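User: Fold this; tokens only.

Assistant: Input:
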Amino acid sequence: MAELVFFSGTMDCGKSTLALQTDHNHAARGRAGVVFTSLDRAGEETLSSRLGLKVPAFEVSDETDFWKHVVDVLEAGGRCDYLICDEAQFYSADQIDQLARVVDELGVDVFAFGILTDFRTRLFPGSQRLVELADKVQVLQVEALCWCGSRATQNARTVNGEMVVEGEQVMVGDTNSDDVVAYEVLCRRHYMRRVTAATSMSAHISPTPLPFAEPEVRLASARPQVVLPVAPLAAAP
């Protein structure tokens, strides 16, 4: 039975790396697949990970029709056993419906990868629909970490180093001004307090790396040391 599986997590938890590994594992067993992505950090028509790995991919736009794409491949005499769909949070709800139809009516496995919520802690439409329709929703076990060392659960957006909670849901970069738009992951406590790595002035969990140097401690004796004479041993008879 084909399945629609959604792998979710925050930024920096290895979603794209797992997408590449999943594609490799299935292809190594002789299965034919198609890779899709959207707004990848490496540019259009590329699926990449922060580890430096990347493969060519079809760029998903508002006009992409997954059902039509797979049907065209099959009608042309090709094979399609599975789809890898990275950055699935950027897909529309209708496109997620198309992926579910590909699974149910064409018997093609779909492996979708994406983050659940945006910088405002609101669900992306694509991720919401995947949660509603997926046969399995798996949270990635590689935990991204906040600057404080705690588990990161929130995706934060910063503008010129300051965290913001208003604006367009999807913004790869601000091209209309000189503002620097960036993203980082935070634990819920520091997200709610609006404390980013830059504003915390903390680059590490501890400013002193292990092992800690033990301070030299000298203990003064309470009374002078007395040395008793030792009698020589008697010679054996």
